[in-house]
From TrEMBL:
Tetrahydrofolate dehydrogenase/cyclohydrolase catalytic domain span: 5-119
Presence of keyword Coiled coil: no
All residue ranges annotated as the Tetrahydrofolate dehydrogenase/cyclohydrolase NAD(P)-binding domain in the record: 139-278
Pathway given in the UniProt record: One-carbon metabolism; tetrahydrofolate interconversion
Keyword Oxidoreductase tagged: yes
Entry GO CC: cytosol
Residues at which NADP(+) binds: G165, R166, S167, I231
Catalysed reactions listed for this entry: (6R)-5,10-methenyltetrahydrofolate + H2O = (6R)-10-formyltetrahydrofolate + H(+); (6R)-5,10-methylene-5,6,7,8-tetrahydrofolate + NADP(+) = (6R)-5,10-methenyltetrahydrofolate + NADPH
PANTHER family: C-1-TETRAHYDROFOLATE SYNTHASE, CYTOPLASMIC, C-1-TETRAHYDROFOLATE SYNTHASE, CYTOPLASMIC-RELATED
Protein name as catalogued: Bifunctional protein FolD
Lineage: superkingdom: Bacteria
Entry-linked HAMAP family: THF_DHG_CYH
Source organism phylogeny: Bacteria, Bacillati, Bacillota, Clostridia, Lachnospirales
Subunit description: Homodimer.
């Protein structure tokens, strides 16, 4: 019988500290503020936006949304982005992506203020994650996995960790964060020769491939900790992860569900980053 790692429990445990941090800033006359930049109105962006707004409100962070038309020109997009980037009342910027095909994200990645870059778009923050510099901002989802492990008292130190997926938003930075915690990390992808074996040997297995139910019982070691980052829609139009939960759960010691797992921690990490960004921007380095 495994323990289900519930995102809501992790978020609840983080809430009080975050509220206190927001209050401490307000006492200094700083109203922490996140601005979400959304181009168009994709349903998954809108769903994340609702969750983020609710979480920011709960913590005491102002959350603004700048909605831009889907057919906005590159020039206008960069102008709007820079306006928000230079607005001293904004302490964190979250740009939803992917952007429409005609827009190039690279120019804004290079201009975003590193302290406002709360979801790790810029090379500065990516470099800090890879250098193990804790003043950087890791992608919120990658950090949410670490927070979840911390909450359940699971220490990666000395353990075999396999991460499936090597994107710059989840897999690669997460591998670095787990390496910093002294895990022995294997990073898998579509060209991995024996994925089943790489997964089965893991004491901590993180699935971040975006393939519904790809992690099967045969790929899971006895008593492994299984963290599911995937967000997919199954053949019945239901939200599901990368892990075949019912088949894997009996073999795992700990397992995170989808929905209700890592995704529920991500907005709390986002809030933590906005608060830290607000402190850094006001030269409060505690
Ligand atoms: P990407 O599509 O950018 O990357 C997927 C990665 O998984 C790639 O490295 C790919 O390998 C690898 N992969 C895909 N299929 C296989 C396979 N069959 N075997 C081995 N490796 C495979 O996805 P993201 O990293 O952006 O997202 C991953 C998942 O996490 C998605 O389901 C996404 O929805 C979810 N997600 C969840 C968030 C949350 O808050 N919980 C936030 C962000 C993402 P290769 O490099 O070789 O192509």
């Amino acid at each position: 019988m495994s323990t289900t790692m519930k995102g809501a429990e992790v978020a609840k445990a983080m809430k009080e500290t975050l509220i206190r941090e927001a209050e401490a800033l307000k006492e200094k006359g700083i109203l922490p503020c996140l601005t979400i930049i959304r181009v168009g109105a994709r349903p998954d962006d809108l769903a994340y936006e609702r969750g983020a707004k609710k979480r920011m409100e709960l913590i005491g962070i102002e959350c603004r949304v700048r909605e831009l038309p889907e057919d906005i020109s590159q020039r206008e997009f960069e102008k709007e982005f820079q306006k928000i980037n230079q607005d001293p009342s904004v302490h964190g910027i979250l740009l939803f992506h992917p952007l429409p095909d005609h827009l190039d994200e690279k120019p804004v990645k290079s201009i975003i203020h590193p302290y406002k870059d709360v979801d790790c778009m810029s090379d500065v923050n990516i470099a800090k994650v890879f250098a193990g510099d804790e003043t950087g901002f890791a992608p919120c989802t990658a950090e949410a996995v670490v927070r979840m492990l911390d909450h359940y008292g699971i220490d990666p130190k000395g353990r075999k960790v396999t991460v499936v997926g090597r994107s710059m938003v989840v897999g690669k930075p997460l591998a670095m964060l787990l390496l910093d915690r002294h895990g022995t990390v294997t990073l898998c992808h579509t060209r991995t020769a024996d994925l089943e074996e790489e997964c089965r040997k893991a004491q901590i297995l993180v699935a971040a491939a975006g393939k519904a139910g790809m992690i099967t019982e045969a790929m899971t070691g006895q008593d492994a900790v299984v963290v599911d980052v995937g967000i997919n829609v199954d053949e019945n139009d239901r939200l599901c992860g990368d892990v075949d939960f019912d088949a894997v759960e009996p073999r795992a010691s700990y397992i995170s569900p989808v929905p209700g797992g890592v995704g529920s921690v991500t907005t709390s990490v986002l809030a933590a980053h906005v608060l830290r960004g607000a402190r850094y921007l006001n030269s409060i380095f505690v």
